[in-house]
Amino acid sequence: MNAIFGELDHPPRLLMGPGPINVHPRVLRAMSVQLLGQFDPEFTAYMNQTMALYRQVFETQNRWTFLINGTSRAGIEAAMVSVLAPGDHAVVINAGRFGLLLMEIAQRCGARITTVEAPWGSVVDANAVEDAIKRVRPRLVAGVYGDTSTTIAQPMSEIGALCRHYDTLLYVDATATLAGMPAPVDAWGADLVTAGLQKCLGGPSGSAPITISERAAEHIFSRRHVERGLAGAPAMEPKGERIASNYFDLAMIMDYWSERRLNHHTEAASMLYAARECARLVLEEGLPERFARHAQAGQAVVAAAQAMGLEVFGDPAYKMTNVTAIHIPTGIDGERVRARMRDDFEIEIGSAFGSLAGRVWRIGAMGVNARKHAILSTFAALEAVLRQEGFSVRGGAGVDAALSVYQGS
Predict the structure, then answer these.
(1) What is the reported pLDDT for 234?
(2) Are residue 323 and residue 174 in the same domain, yes or no?
(3) How far is Cα 232 from Cα 227, in angstroms, rounded to an integer?
């Protein structure tokens, strides 16, 4: 017998993990708007508007600021495969799971990798990055600004200055921080920066904003090849070594987003609508105000955890404002706590990866969830579950501490 299954009807959950988070209602509404043809003048106007909006979100003047169809990892891979050719040197800043991911993607590009590492919970010293740059003279330096696996934010301004000084390109993965922490692309001197909607931007996973400097664009276009099936395209001689991926070929995607509209793929219209509305929400609130809201929410999470006798993981000087890792108390089953939070309170908090698996929970306060009521609800539930699991905590301690952060503002 063929199964039809039921209509989607799960209970609404408060998503307080490291992402995805709850989507803003306006973004959901935007996604329900009827589709248009990809070359409809109204649709291409939406594409141009989205580019203009994300220039403001990225704090950049970069012409090449647009969307990659796919999750945030699609943006990461597009950036790296379009810059790195086999044999190129790359320096990868690695202090967490997603630094390791950058290293693996660069290896798949055939690059020769030099890593500059730090223990999980800390950041990489810029002097060590400079030493690596001087030693191998890389095509690209790649790092993560806000690695949710460790909840630590790597400072980027000094590394950007080093890359400019030594004439190497800088790629930054800002998936978990864009629109939640300052990410001033031009001030950093970064050449390629990517993100995703499902964190501080408050949208669904499936679209990856990207911005590309002129010098990075020049290098990418030096590898431009036009698909054979586009024989009617304006004549362009193939250049350099062809980018290994068709789907993630930034030279072709940039031609698609340019005035030429040279076909590459069918733009994911509903995701473009979502990304456009995410950016509008960010800019309506204002970047300084949004950063302050996320910072205050992060302070409330830390205060609540510490008031309950829980220990926060990582170097506090470099902690992300929007995701906090909390040590699981000795004798407490972390996954059982997460299951009870979900089953009894419809609240999700995150587990961890790699060396931190089973050692910490990760609590995110991003987008619409970086608000007082979401944090109070989360810690009231966590306190109740921990007490039932045998952990001693004063009633209301976490909620009181979080409230004090808001009342003191």
Answers:
(1) 55
(2) no
(3) 10
- 316, 301 in Cβ contact below 8 A? no
Q: Which of 282, 299, 314 marks a domain boundary? A: 282
The single-letter code of the amino acid at 351 is S
What was the pLDDT predicted at 239? 74
Structural domain boundaries, residue 329: 287-407
Judge contact between 170 and 190, C-beta under 8 A: yes
Q: Alpha-carbon Rg of the chain, whole angstroms?
A: 22
User: What are the tokens at 383?
Assistant: 């306190």
Residue 224 tokens read as: 């431009």
Residues 6+ apart with CB under 8 A from 317: none
Q: Do 153 and 298 meet the contact criterion of CB atoms below 8 Å apart?
A: no
Residue 362 and residue 351 in contact, taking contact as beta carbons nearer than 8 Å: yes
Residue 286: which residues within 8 A CB-CB, separation 6 or more? Answer: none
pLDDT for the residue 276 = 98
Nearest to 172, CA basis, from 206, 225, 129, 127: 129
Alpha carbon of 305 to those of 105, 107, 235, 318, 359: distances in Å? Answer: 36, 39, 62, 18, 15
Q: How far is it, in rounded angstroms, from Cα 292 to Cα 180?
A: 8
Per-residue model confidence (pLDDT) at position 240: 81
State the Cα–Cα distance between residues 354 and 346, nearest whole angstrom.
26
Q: Please, what is the end-to-end C-alpha distance for the chain in angstroms?
A: 61
pLDDT, residue 409, reads 58
Q: If you ran DSSP here, which 8-state letter would residue 319 be given?
A: B
Task: Look at the chain and count its residues.
Answer: 409
Same domain? For 319 and 247 the reply is no
Q: Looking at the domain assignment, is residue 360 inside a domain?
A: yes
pTM reported for the whole predicted model: 0.96
State the total domains in the chain: 2
Question: Looking at residue 343, which CATH number applies to its domain?
Answer: 3.90.1150.10
> What is the rounded CA–CA span in Å between residue 320 and residue 294?
10
Distance CA 116, CA 124 (A): 7
- Using alpha carbons, list the distances in angstroms from residue 232 to 201, 227, 228, 236, 376: 39, 10, 9, 11, 60
> Residue 227's pLDDT is what?
84
The helix (H) or strand (E) run that includes residue 406 is helix 397-407
Low-confidence ranges of the chain (pLDDT < 50): none
116 token code pair: 């500059």
